Amino acid sequence: MSAALETKGDWLQSWDPEDPQKWDKKLAYNTLTVTTFTLTLCFVAWFLPSAIVPKLTALGYTFTQSQLYWMAAMPGLSGGLLRLVWMVVPPIMGTRKMVTLTTLLLILPVLGWGFEVTNPDVPYWRLMGLAFLAGIGGGAFSGFMPSTSYFFPRRMQGTVLGVQAGVGNFGVSLVQLLTPWLISFGMFGFLGSQQMAVPGKESVIVWYQNSALVYIPFIVVGAIWAYLVLKSVPVKANIKQQFDIFSNQDTWWMTLLYIMTFGTFSGLSAQFGLLMSNLYGSGNPEIVQGAGASATLLVDGYALPDPVKYVFLGPLIGAGARVAFSPLTDRMGGAVWSLISGVGILASILYTLGGLVPDTSSAEALTAGFNQFLWGMLAIFLFSGIGNASTFKQMPMIFERRQAGGVIGWTGAIAAFGPFLFGVGLTLMPPTTFYIIGAVWAVMCIAITWTRYARPGAPKKS
Q: Which residues contact 36 (CB under 8 A, 6 or more apart)?
């Protein structure tokens, strides 16, 4: 057995990815495979409410528009809070125990949603509790990503972390893409079926419990796989020692940049369906009068968009961009792509503003506005995905290994509040105002990136 593979319990001994004699490539990639699979399940659990909440009214639940926004926002609040816990776990608990136990915890929200989505009489607080528990999947990111970074040399971390985070992010699209198909047949018919009433269409029979319960076997397999395969890297630090990252100004600058990128990605992923429904679908009383099967269209000739058919596209594009652009960040550096991301997000927001106020004067005007809204949103997802890749290349270059892991966990924790902040923002103010704030934030981040990281002679060229 090589020195790299000598173990003491879960812990590897003399592990150093920068030294070929103390690094095992096969173990590193096995770790990447297992943790990426389980991280994908974490994102499935985290964003499962985003695939269910927009349809609760159609399923007979009597919640207000504001209550639904808050329900969709709650996983973001809990995900952000729980990331503050998970960010300090890897050096203390180790990769093997952390990944195994975290994966098992996903059973709580997934099983809960599978049963409660069949009961329109369930009290609001119980669904809010399940929405909070869904944040376990979001919290895991700040433990999984730093932990994986310990297994690879710096020269590879842009690609490796981009692939893991990007494939993990596909869990968002996976749950939103598969849900319409999964609910169409009685896989778990013993829990009964539901009537889904969509305005302007006949009611259909669905089995919405399928959208959650189908993932339970994969979660169990992922936990067992993690326990059998994973080891832990001896990067030891107590909580107090890990807090030294906060004395480094770059921790705060990178936090602002990652809020722009992942905060936007996660926030829009959680709220995309509701926002579309409330602007151009059944949630807009200027377009639809009444609710359920008796609802009538107030704009003749207009075809209501079904959010379920569109919401997966944004996360899919964002996650795909994160994977595709990660190798480019290793070749060209992260800062230049963070700069491109900021400019692209700013331009996309400005374009989308015109689609945030639907013109109900005619079906043609409404359709044109919807197309502008949709393409603008997809562009925002694209550039946020590029920025998600580039910032994760920058952090291992700016900080030493242990600090880089901590900063990755911290920035991920703060940006995970995106779904909550987007939900609160869209509840308290018109979408146009909220998007203008986002544009101002992008301008600030462009200035930070250029001044600190990207310009010739920048203090922390990365």
A: 163, 164, 167, 168
